[in-house]
Amino acid sequence: MRNPKKSDAAANAKRRSSGSAPVDSEASTDGGYNAGMAVFSYIIGGIIVWSLIGWGLDYLWGTRWIVLAGALLGAAGGFYISHMHGLTSSRTKADGRHAPSAPSQDGEDNAK
């Protein structure tokens, strides 16, 4: 008799594969490169957007320092968003996947 769980997993892996080589579903869904690019995009995007806002305010108010404050605010905001999305954590579980960044369910602090 056929094992339905095994055949479903094989069918899902076959659908995800774009080439002729088999794809490991665990490795392809969570890549360090993708997380790094997301962090980079958040930080650079924040710098660009908030620098432009600061430049506009500098132009309106006749100052020269708000663009720098906007760039720093954008970098900090981009890093904060990356951290909140769990992209900046390097902790891993024993099986190689990322450890959860939420508090433990039992209410105890496991920090060392």
TrEMBL record:
The chain crosses the membrane at residues 39-57, 63-81. Residues 1-32, 90-112 are annotated as: Disordered. It comes from the Bacteria. Keywords: Membrane, Transmembrane, Transmembrane helix. This is FoF1-type ATP synthase assembly protein I. It comes from Arthrobacter liuii.
